[in-house]
Amino acid sequence: MRKIRRKERDGKKILIITNHSYMLYQFRRELIQTLMKEHEVILCMPFVGHEEDFQNMGIRCIRVDVDRRGINPKTDLILFHTYKKLLKTEEPDMVITYSIKPNIYAGYACRLMGIPYCVNVQGLGTAFQKEPTATIVSMMYKAALKNAKTVFFENADNAAEFVRRGVIPASKEKVLKGAGVNLDVYRQHPYPDEEEGIHFLFLGRIMKEKGVDELFAAASRLKKKYGDRIIFDLVGFFEDEYKETVERLDADGVIKFHGFQTNPKPFYVNSHCVILPSYHEGMSNVLLEAAATGRALIASDIPGGGADTVEEGVNGFLCRKKDAEDLERCVERFMRLSMRQRELMGKKGRRKMEREFDKAAVVGETVRAIGG
């Protein structure tokens, strides 16, 4: 195994590799800014938004496209060799990776080349939801993470799954509170009036694993019962399979579809409760942002979702995943509360974010674990 030669330099040269520049900017910008105080930071990613913002921060950005969802041995092998070539050219002192393909292929390249690296597992995703895919991906991860300095997780259950499967030893895991939430950016806002109805907001990708089938079923029944007193706002972009359903429900008045929005804050502010009945999460940024804004939550009782962000009956309600009737029950419980009780739930959620999910604390933990 050949270690590459590194030049003498002040601070470290840190290469961050991800599969999505938009997500990196939205949720890791503060971490990058902190690292830049002491080190040279370079970003490697597809250019799908915010690359100019990074460049304006004084960061050199290298474009490497990644097929985020496809499983094609040929293109994945090309990606692995692209990462190897990049590492040889850049000679970084530390590599930090985000998302499954950079974690595996860039991680394995770092292992082979003797480059220190840290890996971020931002949820187990669909790959771990069924066999034999879960076993195959576990084996690939095990090979890639063998020499990783630290493996970051966004919830304890995901970390325990990696240890149980023998992917990493427990000594390498570091569980963070997700990416945390910037409490200055997402400030607590006054509870909105209810004269025009109670607004329940779903914000995110409109796809099966976010629990939208259950949401649509519950919304259809509740709309018939409560009429104009209840409003279901949807913000995000839909998978192609949901185009017809979303357009029909919007036309029928069951939901109000607002499309994808670059700034979600006004929708949090105008909502009374945020709903996320997803099947699996790393750590839901939507729930963190909504709670920081001072809004109650209804979320499925899963790691990284409601199980980590909702205290039952305190700042929201927990529903069983894949259970439309239980989701409907939670919405009705919220509807039966007084305005004062609903407002108090939001305030308690804000306090929880301040105690447990402050981004400044998460960034500090991350920097210390990286060794920066």
Label the structural class.
Answer: alpha/beta
Name the helicity range: 40-55%
Total of helices: 14
Mean pLDDT: 92
Largest sheet: 7 strands, parallel
The SSE string, one letter per element, is EHEHEHEHEHEHEEHEHEHEHEHEHHH
Q: Spans with pLDDT under 50 lasting ≥5 residues?
A: 1-9
Main sheet: strand order: 3-2-1-4-5-6-7
The counted number of beta strands is: 13
Q: What percent of residues are in strands?
A: 15-25%
Q: Overview of this structure, please?
A:
- The chain has 372 residues and is of the alpha/beta class.
- It contains 14 helices and 13 strands.
- Strands 3-2-1-4-5-6-7 form a seven-stranded parallel sheet, sandwiched between helices. It has a six-stranded parallel sheet with strand order 10-9-8-11-12-13, with helices on both faces.
- Helix 4 packs parallel to helix 5 and helix 10 packs across helix 13 (339-356).
- The longest helix is centred in the N-terminal third of the chain and has 18 residues, at 73-90.
- The protein is globular.
- Mean pLDDT is 92; it is low at 1-9.
SSE layout and pairing:
Elements: E1 13-17, H1 21-36, E2 40-45, H2 51-56, E3 60-63, H3 73-90, E4 94-98, H4 100-113, E5 117-121, H5 133-144, E6 150-153, H6 156-164, E7 173-175, E8 198-203, H7 212-226, E9 230-235, H8 243-251, E10 256-257, H9 265-270, E11 273-276, H10 285-293, E12 296-300, H11 306-309, E13 316-319, H12 324-336, H13 339-356, H14 359-370
Parallel strand pairs: 1-2, 1-4, 2-3, 4-5, 5-6, 6-7, 8-9, 8-11, 9-10, 11-12, 12-13
